[in-house]
# Entry
Amino acid sequence: MSIDTRKIKFQTDGLNLFYNTFRALKDVNISLYECTITAIIGPSGCGKSSLLRIFNRMNDLIPKSRVEGNVLIDNEPIYDKGVDVAALRKRVGMVFQKPNVFPTTIYDNIAVGPRNHGIRERKQLDEIVESSLMKATLWDEVKDIYKKSNGLELLPGQQQRLCIARALAVEPEVILMDESCSALDHMSTLKIEELMLELAKKYTILIVTHNMEQALRVSDMSAFLMIDEDRAGIVVEYEPTLQMFTSPKDKRTEDYITGRFG
# Structure
């Protein structure tokens, strides 16, 4: 299926993000397609992570932040008054730069989300935990220890896959990944990338990465951000990844991809 024929999962229209009086993102218009991996690339400080956090309203946790413009999921606004933010974050899971594993068993790391959403039956929780570990390609490595071993005892790459399993346990529709491979070794990174490609068959995935090779390996679409003269983050170019990397339309995109700046 071509990108153009896929359903639009998220859409922004005239999006501006402010931290107090500082405008961090300016006039962002972008559409994220269902069951597609989209990479956000650009130099440090251009608002990549800020844009990522727009889609599950994590910026709400920052004092004096505000959003102007429209952000829609399945054509429904997510910043309107009355929107259930907890329900939104169940639909839009997030995996952070460093694995934020809880100091408890592997099992309880994954079960915490379903429990918070009211699931208490042990058999159902067992099924969710096992299924989530399988989806995160971690089951074979922990199936003999997951009910008794602390998640912090896992290797860094395994911890990140545990965090992905935890996100999957609440059955999201979208997965946000903020530099989720930057702290991992090469082999662990490749495992996460393979996992992304498999998950994209069912989930919409949005990643922030400084790794141009990674963006080229895994993403279908790429958005290049940079800072304008007002120090605000803007989207310079948003295209299919292969097209952007081989024939960028904007000279600034070409300069960044080829390492001339950034």
